[in-house]
Amino acid sequence: MSEQKGFKPVPGAIDAPEIGVGMLGYAFMGRAHSNAFKKLPYMMFPPPAIPKLVALCGRDEKAVATAAHQFGYQGYYTDWRDMLADDNIQMFDNGGPNDTHAAPCILAAQAGKHVFCEKPLARTAEEAKGMLDAVQRANVKHMVAFNYRFVPAVRQAYELIRSGALGEIYHFRAMYLQDWLIPSAGTPWLWRMNKEVAGTGAIGDLASHIIDLGRFLVGAEIKTVGARTRTFVSERRKADGSGMGRVDVDDAFAAVIEFENGVLGTLEGSRFATGRKNYNVIEINGEKGSIHWNLERLNELEVLWVDDDPKETVGFHTTNITEGHHPWIAHWWPPGHIIGWEHTFVHEIAHFLDCIVNGKDVAPWGADFVDGYRGAVVADAIVESARTGQQIDCSYD
Questions:
Q1: Selecting from 3.40.50.720, 3.30.565.10, 3.30.470.30, 3.40.50.150, what CATH number does the domain 18-147 have?
Q2: Could you report the per-residue pLDDT of 177-189, keeping only the tens digit for each?
Q3: Whole-prediction pTM value?
Q4: Which of 44, 122, 217, 330 is a Cys-bridge partner for 128, taking CB atoms 3.0 to 4.6 Å apart?
Q5: DSSP string, 62-89
């Protein structure tokens, strides 16, 4: 400790409990979640809890050891069963591929660990229901990482709708478009193209997000689904040069939905939308106004009110959701200084830790496994409607 004149040591540690974290997966989502765990204590101050990065888990020992060192974990495992037997871990974060969601989450719940799982919760509704039953039996906290609920502009839209500012809601429309699978991109065969591992393609990857945003913002369950799907490229070369891999999931989908409260909606998703990188757009039309939001401009909320003076305002006007009174912004920068995609993970994990240490419910602001299961029911309905050509009624047993 410095003995320099005038130096005064900082008082004791932050007065918050530690939560030991065990993470499965170290790729895209492992990186995003780890960044949030490290940033949370000093930005979401005072934090509800201090994430203690106990262990990272992955099958490739060299890769997981490197990632554990890079992200700041105390150690690593190559078998998630071993990791879930570690008593130093109180929270299990599952960022693995879709086929590794169910069994590890169920075992984690049985071990008394709180469970945070990436989307989609499962490959099918049946699989998701088994996970929901497990966490409810174990009485642990459970959350699905639908991080777009934690975009300040989306939460602001939620609050406007709940306040009645839009009046009766007529329409919900959403599209989630990417282009990383178009032939010119040269993307090789990946697990996301394999039904056994992924469950579905664009449906699980993209529809899961906009289904959840629809349920969250409209505030009602989806009652019926009519859909079509397409697979544009049926084979791709494997990255290791071992031959061709069969693509047996959807590349794109389009669906017409009806909510239980009568709202009419459309959902569209594609990984073949040339020129679109991460184009997640929602629009809600109501009796008194409309709201439009685009993930690629995530700090902006476009709003139209029917009683606006046409001499003053023509069409939608854009508001930067960066004021200190907007959701979460007080933790970040002065007004007009935008935040990014990665900050949504900080917000959602802070919410989950608050629920753990203070006994709060994850819902309605966060998506719990009930939400994950009900979203999976809708995803299954999209698959079934496309297969049969029939409209499908959603049943949430």
A1: 3.40.50.720
A2: 999 999 999 999 9
A3: 0.95
A4: 122
A5: HHHHHHHHHHT-SEEES-HHHHHT-TT-
